[in-house]
Amino acid sequence: MVCAHILVAEDNVHQAELVRRYLEHDGHSVVVVHDGRAAIDETRRRNPDLLVLDVMMPLVDGIDVMRAIRTESDVPIVLLTARSTEDDVLLGFDLGADDYITKPFRPRQMVARVRTILRRTGRARETNATVLKVGDLTIDPIRHEVRIKNELVGLTPAEFRLLAKMAAQPQRVFTREQLLEDGFITARTVDVHMMKLRRKIEQDPRRPERLLTVYGIGYKLV
């Protein structure tokens, strides 16, 4: 299995979440932004392994985003667009796109093409995606599943990312800032996800035994 850090720049929230879910299910870590300015800033800040870039975006369109990025980075870029004329496709490739996917598209085909580009460019990392176990809690990154005593627990992608990150280092105290690195917007958003996680993995969310608050610092999984 291969994994990569992928930045998705797509202004359509529903479309962006669909792309995120499919890429995460394939084992990748994904951050989403919704405008071209943020796409440039996040590419510079995170140095992703691959960028999925919508052409039609606010503030800065995808073509200009690619022009800016190509002056300083060779990150693989997959363009998403409703434009399908030959001139549009040729312009994308001339500016340095690695692939061009026309909307509407099938998400699984998009994932397969991303996987191919990652292997071809050497950006992918082979991983055994080790199953994580903390007490009677099991996190399977390949299947994107969480179980308690073999009972499946339904988590959102954001909840899964948080739990998997903490399960990789049980007993470690994570600050909110360290958890924000996974693409959450505010510290308050982290707290909300933790509250929802407790409802799903704790027998009594008001008296947590697994996901503990370390007051004044953050959280830890025990």
UniProtKB/TrEMBL annotation:
Residues 5-118 form the Response regulatory domain. CDD domains: REC_OmpR (cd17574), trans_reg_C (cd00383). The keyword Transcription applies. Residues 129-222 form the OmpR/PhoB-type domain. SUPFAM superfamilies: CheY-like. Keywords: DNA-binding, Phosphoprotein, Transcription, Transcription regulation, Two-component regulatory system. It holds the Pfam family Response_reg. The modification 4-aspartylphosphate is found at residue 54. Residues 129-222 bind DNA. GO terms for molecular function: DNA binding. It comes from the Bacteria. InterPro entries: CheY-like_superfamily, OmpR/PhoB-type_DNA-bd, Sig_transdc_resp-reg_receiver, WalR-like, WH-like_DNA-bd_sf. SMART domains: REC, Trans_reg_C. Signal peptide: none annotated. Coiled coil: none annotated. This is DNA-binding response regulator. It comes from Lentzea flava.
